[in-house]
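Supplementary Text 2. Reproducibility record for the structural model of the 280-residue chain.

All settings were left at their defaults, and a single model was retained for analysis rather than an ensemble. We include the record here because the model underlies the residue-level annotations in Supplementary Table 4.
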Amino acid sequence: MNVKKPIMVVLNVSDTIVTSPVRKAVLSDLSWETKSYFRTSGGIKAKIIQDSMFVVNRKEPGTFYVPTGLVPFIKRRLLEKGIDVEISGDTNTKAKTKAVQETEIEGIKLRKAQIEILQYIAGKSRGVIHAATGIGKSLVALGIFHQHKLRNPECKILFLAHTIDLVVQAADQFKAHFSVGVWQGDKRIDGDIICATIQTAKKIGLNKIQKMFEVLVVDEAHRCADASKSYFAFIQDSFIRYRYGLTATLPNSKEGRLALEGCIGPVIASYDIAQGVEDG
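Retained model, structure tokens:
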């Protein structure tokens, strides 16, 4: 690889290698400042530290790793700056999924908001769905399941929620329409859709998770918005090709926005409460 040229190589759904010219061109876009506190003889002092989404690739000097979810953003910023970039590798971000119609899922009549969200995300392999509380994100999740089961009836789907109460609640909603299993501690009930907390999924191990699941849906996806925490690391390292996040709260910080987009993807559908009220 010519490290003096702007090059991006998409290794997989999680990791992309970029050369120094790419990093230099977008470093300010992918960096943020944080305060680090430390104790001295004179008391507690703060130090400003600049951090970024780039990680040095020690195997190939002059290159860096960056989350693949940020590739479209980096490409757009380079084009805005008039920089041509060579992109290669696993660049397919499409999914052979179609929009779900109003009564397509047996026993459910989708509202206008939910239909529009599922239209926005049809054909996309990753991204965040930002929808206000009350829009019905559980029905949106059902729509995502339906889209991917039509694409591949054999695919297994992992639905992650933050607490076991939310896991059980989601499973109860889903099981009327799909084969649903719940992972809770050492108890593992199988199904086409597995509902679990991230703590339980971590106990299973990334290697098994990578082999078992083709689709990942993350509830309260804003919890991924800290690149230094285990939630981000688990999603980023899961290597599950199709990944979607559901949230009513987008991160306010630059770091949060970059981390969420990096490990799951950009916002691909947004629906606020005002639209929901207007649409009934």
